[in-house]
């Protein structure tokens, strides 16, 4: 897997101060995507053991709330295969830090059911993610006032509550405004 960028003090892609990893590779190709260069699976740098160690170190400070995964598309099957072992390490080392993930795939219709996104890693990856922002970016639904998402069709989902209840539970940000 390749990645396009790492942000060590990100406040735009999840609650609190976060470390954000922008993976490469996306087959959605949303109109007016903010990160088109990451559509190419070969874009950027290789995600290596050294990259993982650097990210784990960046997550260490108490003021870092957690890790955000963006893209590109973290739920492309080849990206899931590379991300799963890493996020297992993050959860093991930092159990109180949250993992947010942004995906163009729909949680209930594509990640939980048969689709091109599903692979042998999908269920376990979902079991480690706290918050999922799902749905493709839709330019006609773009709204700059939305918190943590770009278009009004996208949902902010509490993954663990959704998995345990069997229905989608929207995440309530600390500010109270999703």
What does this entry look like structurally?
There is one protein chain. By secondary structure, the protein is α/β, with parallel strands linked by helices. It contains five helices and seven strands. Strands 3-1-2-4-5-6-7 form a seven-stranded mixed β-sheet. Strand 4, helix 2 and strand 5 form a beta-alpha-beta unit. Helix 2 packs parallel to helix 4. The radius of gyration is 15 Å and the shape is globular. The N and C termini lie far apart (31 Å).
Short description:
The chain has 178 residues and is an alpha/beta fold. It has helices at residues 49-59, 77-93, 107-111, 122-128, 159-165; strands spanning 2-10, 17-23, 45-46, 64-70, 98-102, 131-134, 155-158.
Encode the helix/strand succession as letters.
EEEHEHEHHEEH
What does the average pLDDT come to?
Answer: 94
Biggest pleated sheet:
7 strands, mixed
What shape does the CA trace take?
globular
Low-pLDDT segments, ≥5 res: none
Number of strands: 7
Structural class: alpha/beta
The count of helical stretches stands at 5
Spatial extent as radius of gyration: 15 Å
**Beta-strand percentage range:** 15-25%
End-to-end separation:
31 Å
Strand order in the sheet with the most strands: 3-1-2-4-5-6-7
Characteristics:
5 helices; alpha/beta; 178 residues; 21% strand; seven-stranded mixed sheet
SSE layout and pairing:
Blueprint: E1 2-10, E2 17-23, E3 45-46, H1 49-59, E4 64-70, H2 77-93, E5 98-102, H3 107-111, H4 122-128, E6 131-134, E7 155-158, H5 159-165
Parallel strand pairs: 2-4, 4-5, 5-6
Antiparallel strand pairs: 1-2, 1-3, 6-7
Helix pairs in contact: 2-4
